[in-house]
Structure formats: C-alpha cells, structure tokens
From TrEMBL:
Keyword Repeat on entry: no
Gene label: hemE
Alphabetized GO MF terms: uroporphyrinogen decarboxylase activity
Primary residence: cytoplasm
Subunit description: Homodimer.
UniProt-recorded name of the protein: Uroporphyrinogen decarboxylase
Function comment: Catalyzes the decarboxylation of four acetate groups of uroporphyrinogen-III to yield coproporphyrinogen-III.
Superkingdom: Bacteria
Protein EC: 4.1.1.37
Amino acid sequence: MNKPFNDVFLKACRKEETPYVPVWYMRQAGRYQPEYRKLRREHSFFEMSENPEICVEITRLPVEQLGVDAAILFADIMTPVKHLGIDVAIFPGIGPMITNPIRTEADIHRLGELDPVAHIPTVLEAVRILNQQLSVPLIGFAGGPFTLASYMIEGQSSKNHHKTKGLMYAHPKAWQVLMEKLADMTLTYLKAQIRAGAHAVKVFDSWVGSLSDVDFRTYVAPTMRVIFDELQKMGVPTIYFGIGAGHLLAEWNKLPVSVIGLDWRTSIRSVRAQGINKVLQGNMDPSLLLGPWELIEERAKQVLDQGMERAGYIFNLGHGIFPEVQVDVLKKLTHFVHQYTTIPEVW
Ligand code: 1CP
C-alpha cells in the first residue's frame, strides 16, 4: 500500500501553517550517493537522466534514504537546451561543456524551439511515473534565462560571465531576442513538467547574482516577470534561486513568485529586516556538512531559529550537496530538522 501523501512542503510554499519545517536538499539526487556513482561509471549523464527507469530510481533514492519532504527531478538545467541546436555534454567534475557556443547574432536567430513531445518524451514519462509512485511532492525545474545564456555563450562554467555580459551590453536587441527565446523554452519545459505531474517548479538562476540590481532590472527582470506570470496561471508553487544574489532580493520580492531560495551568504533575519515577505527556502552553508556533527547541529539551529519565526519556511542548504558528504550526515540532519521544529501536540 502507498504511504499517505506528505504535503508539508506544498503547505509551506503556500505560506500555510505546517506541523514541522519541511526539508529537502539541492543536489539531493547525485554524486554523494554510492548508487549514483556506480550508475554514472556506466552511463553518460544524459543517458541516465533520459532513461525513465534510471531517472525514477535516482529521484526516489534521497526520499527513501534521507526522509526528505520533497523530491527533485533528476535532470539538468541543460536538458532542454540540447534541443535548440546547442551541442552540450556533461563531464564529471566540470559540468556542462558546449562545442558550438553562441558567438554571433545569427547564432541566436538560428536557435530552434523546444517540442516536448518530440524532444523530451522520456523525461515527461519519468515525471508521470514519479507522480504515481512518490509519497512526497515532486519539484520540476529549469534554468533561468540568464544562467542558461551564460553557459550557451561562454561554452562552459564561467567565473565572471564576461562574454555573456559583453553581448548583453553591446547588443541589447540580440540579448532581448535570446531572453525571449529562452523564456519561451523555459515556459514550454516547465508547463510540460507540471502537466505530467510536477507539484511545484523551481527556476535555478545560479549566476544571475553576477549582475548589479540595475542590470538585473534592465536586462533580466522583464523576462522573469513573464515566466512567473505565466506559471502563476498553472496554479503550482514556484521557487526562484540564485547564488550571491542577496543584493537582488528586493527586485525578486516584486516578482509573482511564491518562494525565494537563499544562498548561505544572506541571513534569513537580514532578509526579513529588508521587508521581504515571500516564503523563504535555505540556507545552511553546504560546506558545513564536512564539519563535525556538533557544529552542523549548532548552525542548523541558528538557521531554523530565524526561519521558524513565520509560517512559510523550507529548510535547505544554501547551494548543492558536495560529492564528499556522507549519506548518514544528511539523514541525521533531516531527522534533526523534523524533530527540532515539530510543534508538540496540545492535549
Ligand atoms: O538533486 C538535484 O538537485 C536534481 C538534479 C539537478 C539539478 C537541480 C542536477 C543534476 N543539476 C541541477 C541544476 C543545475 N545544473 C544548476 C543549478 C543549481 C546549481 O547552481 O547547482 C546548474 C548551474 C547546473 C549546471 C551543472 N550541471 C553543473 C554546475 C557546473 C558549474 O558551472 O558550476 C554541474 C556540475 C552539472 C552536472 C550535474 N547536474 C546534476 C548532477 C547530479 C550533475 C553531476 C553530474 C555528473 O555525474 O557528472
């Protein structure tokens, strides 16, 4: 028999009262798991994420092993980008590498469109199976247009995103076309995941924090508004996340998004002090998981004591789990968060 559906995460996303603080971890499906590493030795990343059986197994594993309150689909932000005519592969220890990065305005105009039925049937099949099998909500996701553009223009991970910003400043019309194409792709991709059974969706805009607030407002915010306006009509909670994006949160607070994901640099207390009233998710430094348990517990308490002040808070790390982290530490942390935040029953 299936377990009853645990909707604590969805309640928190909707700012409803929850019996305890829900928890899940960015990159909970991945490299810290021996089962993942074993499969990865035999398959490429996309062979794994585009095989429904393997995708379902990797997505379910952290739910079963760690006891988290949400699952996140095992895919990558580059999953849909491949189908626009961008030749991308994922290399262990590096991440996405593109052999034909965008170099000219013509390259932008040449980009294709995502057709979910033709391009990602196996990803959607995995979402449908997960929706049937899981007893916790499934988070679908996509990359934010700025972050995707950065990989597509730089060709790989970048520290300062010079080429990306160069195109943005020197060719604002071409940049606008690129943002519109990526917004269309993101919406098509996320809507397809929602229709297949994703209960919430997250936009990972990991590198958008490299922009000043003025440039975010000018070159990216209009696109994000279109994306979140459209997603709002689908009726599922939405999450927006970036790294080093503390200076952009006042802008994010104006967007029609349900939840703001924080990295570890910005304290929850300081975010609330700025008047940001969205549901918050985060934000323990993922490196802490390599420290002793006493320190992990102390820092988890510090984060929880700030987050618990309001309804509408989800515990997470401030970025993804590192491959060196032990499964048992994550298990213990999940249990601790649940126990520490459980409201005792009043008789
Ligand atoms: O558990 C999960 O989080 C679900 C699966 C998931 C998600 C949400 C993966 C699998 N990738 C992502 C999002 C993602 N991918 C982001 C946004 C979140 C973040 O900032 O980490 C980004 C920037 C990427 C791009 C990417 N793909 C990187 C980062 C590289 C860089 O520039 O720093 C890497 C290392 C990948 C590969 C990847 N994606 C996912 C996994 C498990 C891996 C490792 C793959 C391997 O085995 O080689």
